[in-house]
Design brief:
Blueprint (H helix, E strand, L loop, with lengths): L15 H10 L19 E12 L7 E3 L6 E13 L3 E14 L2 E6 L5 E5 L4 E16 L2 E11 L3 E13 L5 E14 L13 E15 L4 E14 L9 E2 L3 E15 L4 E12 L4 E12 L3 E12 L16 E2 L7 E13 L4 E13 L16 E12 L1
Parallel strand pairs: 2-6
Antiparallel strand pairs: 1-3, 1-21, 3-4, 4-7, 5-6, 7-8, 8-9, 9-10, 10-11, 11-12, 12-14, 13-18, 14-15, 15-16, 16-17, 17-19, 19-20, 20-21
């Protein structure tokens, strides 16, 4: 794959990303070790159907200058099947359909009182995306390896991706090492509509590499650590935003930590995850999630809370400064904080059938973040709900 021949150009000592990352990692908490169990191919076939509904809150009327206050609603339907093939292989097929409608911020301007306001896209946007992926996996005594290919297509975007991953266990099966490589090629073809766009077609190539270690710490505790690097080159601006000119390269580095501890007295487990992210655009972010997985008579209930904080990109301005080479007023590139409250509930209906439910609420504000910066008027809050039915049989 192309990823194996792509140099990690951003990892030189002169890279601004690596200089900032070195400074930020100095304040990370100490972390011990890392989840491992012996691998084995599935002994049953699994068929699943999942539906998710994502709904953004309407934009506050005080922040709207022109256009529709209604934002995105997305309906996601996913069907998958995974089955063993012989004694050492498995194969999986995943098909996903996303339908989205609504309006999105076009650009930020000044209101009559001088405060920033949002010009929305006005007319409703509708789009449909279909993605198909196939994964095959080989298992042996000390590990497994998988190869995946996927293709997605929508009105204005097409992407094809390849991925390879491998994991292997220590002799006593207490430690697992894992690594993965992926490569994707995307083709952007913006739809000309009420909102004008200024390109007809462009491309984007992305390579990614991951390495992780997981470790059984005791009879009741498991920990993991992982490092991920991604490099993108090509068209990275948003064609549907009026004032959006981003660099044509983007390198990203993420460090993730996880811990699970089973508490026999409560028949439950404590779950903690942390992720630090930094990129070449000047963004840093921290994500901390805490969950409590409670075993019930025939189900598993996991309430969780997640906190996220992000530093704005170097070229972000609330009212985009078009005098500079790179500029954007996209709220997703601003400094902000976000809190998510949610719960997952897995219910065993019978030996073969499982029902899964999940609901979460996500809220953002500039003041709840760890970093200072300009206050973006288009920050988004949303609800998300999911229901899935899974059938397993031999």
């Amino acid at each position: 794959m192309a990823v194996t021949n792509t140099p990690l150009r951003g990892l030189s000592p002169a890279s601004p990303l690596m200089r900032r990352l070195g400074q930020s990692l100095a304040v990370l908490p100490a972390y011990q070790g890392t989840a491992a169990l012996a691998d084995a191919p599935p002994t049953f076939t699994e068929v699943g159907l999942r539906y998710s509904r994502y709904s953004e809150d309407s934009l506050d009327s005080e922040k709207l200058i022109f256009g529709s206050a209604n934002r995105y609603d997305i309906d996601i339907t996913q069907l998958w099947i995974e089955a063993p093939v012989g004694a050492s292989w498995s194969v999986a097929l995943d098909v996903q359909n996303d339908y989205q409608s609504g309006a999105s911020p076009w650009f930020v301007g000044a209101q009559a009182d001088g405060e920033p306001g949002v010009i929305m896209s006005g007319a409703s946007i509708q789009d449909n995306r279909v993605e198909v992926g196939v994964t095959t996996r080989y298992f042996w005594a000390d590990g497994n390896a998988g190869f995946a290919i996927s293709h997605s297509d929508e009105d204005d975007y097409e992407a094809t991706a390849l991925a390879f991953d491998v994991s292997w266990n220590s002799a006593d099966n207490s430690r697992t090492w894992s690594t993965a490589l992926s490569s994707s090629h995307d083709n952007v073809r913006p739809t000309q509509g009420v909102i004008p766009v200024f390109i007809e077609e462009d491309g984007l190539d992305t390579q990614s590499a991951h390495f992780g270690v997981s470790q059984i710490l005791s009879r009741t505790a498991v920990a993991r650590i992982g490092l991920n690097y991604t490099y993108s080159e090509g068209y990275l601006s948003d064609p549907y935003k009026l004032r959006d000119a981003r660099p044509d390269t983007h390198e990203r580095l993420a460090l993730s930590l996880g811990y699970r501890r089973f508490l026999p007295d409560f028949d439950a487990s404590l779950q903690a995850d942390y992720r630090y992210y930094a990129d070449s655009w000047g963004i840093d972010s921290h994500t901390l999630e805490l969950g409590w997985a409670q075993n019930l008579s025939s189900s598993l209930l996991t309430p969780y809370v997640r906190y996220y904080s992000q530093r704005q990109a170097d070229f972000f301005n609330v009212v985009s400064d078009t005098s500079t080479t790179h500029h954007a007023d996209d709220y997703r590139l601003s400094s902000y904080g976000a809190v998510t409250l949610g719960a997952r509930w897995s219910i065993l209906l019978s030996e073969q059938w499982t029902l899964e439910l999940e609901a979460e609420r996500y809220e953002t504000s500039q003041s709840s973040g760890l970093y200072s910066g300009e206050k973006a008027p288009a920050l988004v809050d949303f609800w998300r709900g999911t229901i899935a039915l899974i059938w397993r049989f031999e």
